[in-house]
Amino acid sequence: MMARARRTRAESQATTRARRTQAERRATTRAAVLDSARRLFGRKGFDDTTLDEIAAEAGMTIRPIYHYFGSKLELFEAVNAAMEERIVATLQGTTGDELAAWRAYLELCEDPEFRRIVLVDAPRVLGRERWAASEVTRTVASRLGRGERGESLVPDLAARMLIAALAEAALAIGEADDPVRASREAGELAARLFEGLRPPASGKETS
């Protein structure tokens, strides 16, 4: 009886290990596909990248790509989502006011892969309107119009207008011939915009 119980436990543990190993293999394969797709989409763009090239870059056949993602469009959506997670993490990890968060975002815009995927191809391939419901927009809305102590700096309507303006600025950076210069100019304009919307300091005389 005890021997049978030990065998049962051993078989159960072996099954658990096999399932865990299989899950780890799946995760590794999926990550390899995403990494390969990010590099190629970032270098060649959505239209000029094929699934065969992504598979070859990842050192596998095309079958796992269809298994995990279904199509080139769904794979691109997954790559873009991973890029957007970088934006959210950057914004959430930024200390200071909304201008500091915006400047941190502009630094991401200087990454060629990020620009090509998120700012150039994603609006065209996935639709510009999707930004309104994205996690990025929700995160920006939660940061925008708040000072260092969390006080409200701008009304909700103004915050929504700012989000739209800054989104357009980001897209303009992606389309610019000189993205670094465009990023710098966008940062300067954003600084003026935010400064103009700040309420006057307490006790400061106004004309």
Protein described:
The structure is a single chain. This protein has 207 residues and is mainly α. It has 2 domains: 7-70, Arc Repressor Mutant, subunit A; 72-199, Tetracycline Repressor, domain 2 (Orthogonal Bundle), CATH 1.10.357. It has 9 helices and no strands. The protein has helices spanning 2-44, 51-58, 63-69, 72-92, 98-109, 112-126, 135-143, 156-175, 179-197. Helix 5 (98-109) runs antiparallel to helix 9. The radius of gyration is 23 Å and the shape is globular. 24% of the residues are buried. The model is unreliable at 147-151 (pLDDT under 50).
Say which CATH homologous superfamily of the largest domain is assigned.
Tetracycline Repressor, domain 2
Low-confidence stretches are 147-151
Note the total helix count.
9
- Outline, from the CA principal axes? globular
Strand content: under 5%
Give the helix proportion (percent range): over 70%
Mean pLDDT, nearest integer? 78
Please identify the top-level CATH class of the largest domain.
Mainly Alpha
CATH level 3 topology of the largest domain: Tetracycline Repressor, domain 2
What is the structural class? mainly alpha
What's the order of the H and E elements? HHHHHHHHH
Supply the number of structural domains. Answer: 2
Largest sheet: none
Distance between the termini: 93 Å
The beta-strand count equals 0
